[in-house]
Amino acid sequence: MTHNHNPLPEHELLTHKSFLKSLNTVDCLFALLTAAGAFFAQTRIQHTMDIYEMVILWASAGITVFLGWFFKPMRWFAPLCAVLAYGAVMLYDGDITHSDGFLLKYFLSSQSAIMWQCAFVFFALFAYITGAVLAQRKNVATNTLLGMGSVFAWVSAVAGFTGLLVRWHESYLLRPDAGHIPVSNLYEVFILFLVITALMYLYYEARFAVQKLGGFVFSFMAIVVGFVLWYSFSREAHTIQPLIPALQSWWMKIHVPANFIGYGAFCIAAMLGIAELWALRNENAGKKSWLPHSQVIEEVMYKAIAVGFLFFTIATILGALWAADAWGRYWSWDPKETWAFIVWLNYAVWLHLRLVAGWRGKILAWWAVIGLFVTAFAFIGVNMFLSGLHSYGTL
Q1: 253 neighbors 326 (Cβ within 8 angstroms)
Q2: Residue 30: strand, helix, or coil
Q3: What average pLDDT does the segment 95-113 reach?
Q4: C-alpha span between 175 and 141 (Å, rounded)
Q5: What pLDDT is attached to residue 46?
Q6: Among residues 335, 315, 331, 218, which one has the least CA distance to residue 263?
Q7: How is residue 209 annotated by DSSP?
Q8: Distance CA 268, CA 302 (A)
Q9: Domain residue limits, the chain
Q10: Which residues fall within 8 angstroms of residue 275, CB to CB, at 6 or more apart?
């Protein structure tokens, strides 16, 4: 009699390590470094914070730690941005007139860093598109140019986030009694949007190995950069202005970032929708496509919409709480609130059709693309064409 001594294969769920057990020494050091940074920030600027802002500070540190554990590149991204921003703070030395120094003037002042962000968005776009074309010709999955696109995307995110942190400090240098987080006007939130969109795309790029989709996402980001440059030079939107009374609330610090995680995810999904339609056209025609398979693109699109829907829901709830605090009611069917509900409903139906009804393919791709226009009108169109309680974000 023979005996089979080979053990039966274990199910994947049984061999999968828990999230906490997967952490290593570097993850623990990153957590300690983040906590030390939060403690340092609190001791240095405690006189400018109330209890709510201290809670936000430590909650932000906790979120940063989790992001660093979940998406490993964040372990160097967050400290690098903090070090660069603190270097700018040291160079200013409490005096806004020191901005004429070489490093501040050309690299570390908020406007300089943001201009570098805009430049590297275009660099990334060129590298992604050129790399994808060459990869198709040589029939390879990736190449040096696609890798450079990823590097340029990271540089754009670092420059943009550093610029926002420095701009926050500059607002206190200009007006010590009126400094504020830089998410108070279209110029500032578009910079935040570019940072969030780049980081989210880079996560999906690494998770699903879809570098060839970078050209689609960064094409839209280049359009946003074009608007930022126009808005900055023609309207001088980069000038730091006092915070209007309606926005003088700690609610803004959590409501706006959550909103723009949603906006960034929805915009990524729209660009992936275009990519999926292109891939489907090639697949149906029997042509060899340089894009990932349409099912892979749709999976990434679904992940983006699911994340965006979650954060947009959180942002809407936070907005209702802010409205109750400011105006005494949670909901008033103001045009901005109404269109926010339309955006929420649009993606709720999209997710329902995919998860419950089992829809796939072209119709969901088109839906994601059209959803971008619905989202864009809710964000900008309402402020341009309609009036209401939220009419302080006009062009």
Answers
A1: no
A2: helix
A3: 92
A4: 52
A5: 76
A6: 315
A7: T
A8: 10
A9: 74-241, 259-388
A10: 213, 216, 291, 297
Alpha-helical regions (H) of the chain: 12-15, 25-45, 51-70, 74-92, 102-103, 110-138, 144-174, 186-208, 214-235, 252-284, 294-327, 335-355, 362-376, 382-385
One DSSP character per residue, 267-306 reads HHHHHHHHHHHHHHHHHHTTPPPSSPPHHHHHHHHHHHHH
Helices 252-284, 362-376: axis angle to 10 degrees equals 150
* End-to-end CA, the chain: 84
Distance CA 149, CA 198 (A): 11
pLDDT category of residue 392 using cuts at 50, 70 and 90: low
pLDDT at 6 over 80: no
C-alpha 12: how far from its chain's center?
32
Q: How many residues does the chain have?
A: 395
CB 102 within 8 Å of CB 95? no
User: Measured between alpha carbons, how far is residue 174 from residues 88, 167, 185, 242, 273 in Å?
Assistant: 15, 10, 17, 9, 44
CA distance 39 to 205: 34
Q: What is the mean pLDDT of residues 136-148?
A: 90
Phi and psi torsions of 216, nearest 5°: -70, -50
Q: What is the mean pLDDT of residues 66-76?
A: 95
**Hey, what amino acid is at 126?**
F
Q: Which residue has the tokens 């900008």?
A: 380
Estimate to the nearest angstrom the gap between the alpha carbon of 164 and the chain centroid: 13
With contact defined as beta carbons under 8 Å apart, do 167 and 188 qualify?
yes
Interaxial angle between packed helices 335-355 and 362-376, expressed in degrees from 0 to 180 and rounded to the nearest 10: 170
Per-residue confidence (pLDDT) for residue 13, from 0 to 100: 47
State both tokens at 192: 């935040």
Provide the sign of the torsion angle of the four alpha carbons 73, 79, 84, 85, taken in this order: positive
* CA nearest neighbour of 309 among 386, 252, 363, 371: 371
